[in-house]
Amino acid sequence: MWRASGITNELQLYCTAIGALVFAALMLFAGWFHYHKAAPKLAWFQNVESMLNHHLAGLQ
């Protein structure tokens, strides 16, 4: 099964598993960070100008 994904030895499998665990921990932290009490309300995301500014802020 792993060979079909291009993983051919145990080191690659180990590194992939560790990477997946790190990514899962990062996503768990991001979820906790995103849904804390100071998070913007739903109405903020429904405001088109606010949503556009939110997404364009990453380009600066």
From TrEMBL:
<dbReference type="GO" id="GO:0015979">
    <property type="term" value="P:photosynthesis"/>
</dbReference>
<keyword id="KW-1133">Transmembrane helix</keyword>
<dbReference type="InterPro" id="IPR036408">
    <property type="entry name" value="PSI_PsaA/B_sf"/>
</dbReference>
<keyword id="KW-0812">Transmembrane</keyword>
<dbReference type="GO" id="GO:0009535">
    <property type="term" value="C:chloroplast thylakoid membrane"/>
</dbReference>
<protein>
    <submittedName>
        <fullName>Uncharacterized protein</fullName>
    </submittedName>
</protein>
<dbReference type="Pfam" id="PF00223">
    <property type="entry name" value="PsaA_PsaB"/>
</dbReference>
<dbReference type="InterPro" id="IPR001280">
    <property type="entry name" value="PSI_PsaA/B"/>
</dbReference>
<keyword id="KW-0472">Membrane</keyword>
<feature type="transmembrane region" description="Helical">
    <location>
        <begin position="12"/>
        <end position="35"/>
    </location>
</feature>
